[in-house]
Structure formats: C-alpha cells, structure tokens
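Standup notes
- DV: blocked on the single-chain target, sequence here:
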Amino acid sequence: MGDRITYIGLDVHKEGIAVAVAEDGIGGEVREYGRIANTAAALDRLVRKLGRDGVKLRFCYEAGPCGYGIQRHLAAHGHGCVVVAPSLIPRRPGDRVKTDRRDAASLARLHRAGELTPVWVPDPAQEAMRDLVRARLDAVHALRRARQQLSGFLLRHGCHYGRPAWTKLHRRWLAGLKLEQAIHHLVLEDYVQAVEAAEARRDRLTAQIAAMLPEWTLVPVVAALQAMRGMALVNAATLIAELGDLSRFANPRQLMAYLGLVPSEHSSGASVRRGGLSKAGNGAARRLLIEAAWCYRFPARVSRALLLRQEQQPKPLREIAWKAQVRLCARYRKLARTGKPANVVTAAIARELAGFVWAIARGVPPAAG
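- DV (later): unblocked, structure below
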C-alpha cells in the first residue's frame, strides 16, 4: 500500500486551482477532483485528503504568472512537484475543446506517463536577483520609450540636433529651443522630465545590482564572466541571474539549445530543411548574448577596462577568455566575408560565445551560501 503513487495535475489561476487525479498504472483511473482556492491552507487540506494510507503524491502544474510558490510549499512538505514548460506539453492536433478541468486531467495523465518537461525552479535568493535585473531591464525599455517619444515630438516640429544626443550639450540645446506655441514648451519640458526620471531609475537599479552582488552565492561566476569581452558587470549579472548555476548543463550544446541559439529543423525522409533560430528557452539571456557578440566584430585585443576586470581572475580563466576572443573575432570576419547578413553572423557568434560562457562558469564553484 505504501508503494502506491497518485499523480495530481493542477491548473493554477490567481483565485483558484482546478485539480485532477491519476491513479498509478497504465490503466489507472483519471478523474476530476474539483476546484480549490489558491491558498496554502487549501493545498494542505488537499494533501491530507489524497495522501491517506501512505500514498505518495506527485504534483505538476504549468509555469505561469503565479510563480513557484506552490512548488516550494509542496516540496517543503516532502511532496514531489514539478513545474512544466507549457510550450513542450504534448497536445492532440484535433483537440478543439479547452477547459480548466481538461487541462488538469491532461497534466495528471501526462505526468503519470512521464511525458512532461520540467523547468528549472530557482531558489528564492536566485529569483530575487533575477527580479532585480529584470526590473533594470524594464527601466532600460522605459528609458528607450521616453527618448523615442521626445525625439518624435522634436521631429514633428522640425527640430534637428545633428550631433550625438542624450549628452549634457544635447540637454542644453533642448533648453534653448524656441517653439511657436507656449503649450509646446510645457510638452517639451514634460518629455524631458520623463527622460531624466527614466535615466535616474536605470542608474539607481544598476547601483543596487552592484550593491547586492557580494551577498549572492553566484558572485564568483559573475566575476569570472567579466573576464570575457562584452561581459561587463551588468551583462554578466543579468546572464547568470537568468540562467542560474550552469553546472546543470552537461555540455555546451545543451546550453545553446536552452537559449534557442540552434537552428530550427523540419525534416522528413530524405528531405532535410533547417530554418532560423529556434528561439526557445530564455529570451532575455539570448538577447544579451547576441548583444555581446557584436563586440567581436573588432580585432582581438585586451582593452584597459577589460584588463582591470581580468586582474583578479586566475590564469586558466584568462586563457579561456583570450581563446574566445581570438576564435570569435576571426570567425566573425570569416563569416562576414562570405556575404552573410550581419544578424546571421552575430547569431552564430553568440552561439559559440555561449559555449565559452559554459566553460568559464563550470570552472568556478559558487560561494558558500
């Protein structure tokens, strides 16, 4: 009796959870349990009711906006719970009916069959750092949007600066503009204040990232990645906050596939067709690597800023970073000479850059928590 396992599928929403139960065995019954509140107390009652007579419980639910609180609560009470990648759930092409109850039953059935792909669940400290770097990314997007709105306003009224913008000289030029309508000066000042507020928010969050890094267990990995070209403090912290401990990837190909930096493919029989990037997995980390890959279009060299970042790193890590520079800079020029579009070349460099990131991260143990 103690070896029995019950698989529970949870379709999680903000206010409630639809629950379905699949009994152990290929022909085991799959039944709808009902709907419970999305609270810890309701989960505890569900566990007590289903876990009678020593039955082992195995929970699963889709990754979504409700986060990992349910998984952590169940795991803390000794019950297995996986968070499932929604895009990798097998679905019948002809199924046109979708309800919460059906989704829960399908999760329970597939979990019993072992057909679900779990996602990596960060610990609370890792998730907190990830929220911080994502808040800075939101601030960068807000700053870009505020600058575009100001530039659009100036363009509509025929005001052209003609030199690099968003400098002190540019701010003085904005203050000296003469517009026909008095209301336009109010609009201009509001746009300028929006840009300045967005810049202050970005800078504040950047400083907070630097201040919180020493307390993070993965700070040695962040410091090691800064030995690479295109990986300054914010970039390295953001990459590791998004990906976590890279030791869970057995080889660099797994990391490349996780980042969606491998070609998509649609092959059948003798026909083999490969398309663009699969763009699976973590989009923020993928974009960051592609941005870093642009640095390798220039000749390999160790700049003063890069030298300062490398001074505290051991020689083996510096050698990997230099090997990456030599290889990727040469490969960028070689691919560019073949006439390939710049974005295709950069994506190829980003894919190889992910391999060097994996090699460096694997050689640095995390700090003691």
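- Follow-up: The two ends are 40 Å apart (CA to CA).
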